[in-house]
Design goal:
Elements (H helix, E strand, L loop, with lengths): L2 H23 L16 H20 L8 E6 L2 E8 L2 H12 L6 E8 L6 H20 L8 E6 L2 E8 L2 H13 L5 E8 L2
């Protein structure tokens, strides 16, 4: 086989693979059961992942925002910000930065002000409560817990993300409220559209 023939075959194979992959990105998943959220194409899922990464990068580059205190979730271009920050100015700046990212169609603000400073003991307690809530969510077979972000500040548990149904939101809220050390729950979960 000549070098030219080998290159032609390799090019043809690569073209076929690329075409197959691109066609797969536009194909909607099989019909979902009634309890599932409306299906998304692989392309939309990739777009949302890119938007999430872009928002996180933009927030990280913004010195006026402590981006490590924020959670970012994206569903069909809608970005949900949550977490606890020190000032309203940080919330406002985080919202402005997020809105400026390409592909963002809407921004939902679930960010809460911290209030007074915490001690190291409180931070450890909060991390423990977060761990308990995450563990309990993972143990519930009816909740897609990997779609839920959990943060805790002074015993207040904040849930955010996009889930399949109102029933999952209610169950996650119940689980978080029952976690040892949780004083309250701020539920920012949304049903996938």
């Amino acid at each position: 086989m000549t070098t030219r023939t080998s290159r032609l075959l390799l090019g043809t194979a690569l073209t076929a693979i690329a075409t197959t992959l691109l066609m797969g990105c536009n194909k909607a998943p099989e019909a979902a059961p009634a309890t599932q959220a409306p299906p998304m194409t692989v392309g939309t899922q990739v777009d949302d992942a890119v938007i999430t990464s872009s928002v996180k990068s933009a927030l990280l580059a913004e010195p006026a925002v402590n981006s490590f205190d924020l959670q970012v979730e994206t569903r069909k271009g809608t970005v949900q910000l949550s977490g606890f920050v020190d000032s309203q100015a940080q919330i406002d700046q985080a919202l402005a930065v997020t809105r400026s990212v390409a592909g963002v169609t809407n921004v939902e603000n679930g960010v809460t002000l911290k209030g007074t400073a915490t001690s190291m003991g409180t931070k450890v307690d909060d991390a423990t409560v977060t761990g308990r809530v995450k563990t309990a969510l993972l143990a519930d077979p009816d909740i897609k817990s990997l779609d839920i972000s959990v943060v805790t500040y002074k015993g207040e548990v904040q849930l955010s993300g996009f889930v399949n149904s109102q029933g999952q939101i209610d169950q996650a809220n119940k689980i978080a409220g029952a976690a040892d050390g949780a004083s309250s729950v701020k539920n920012e979960l949304k049903v996938k559209q």
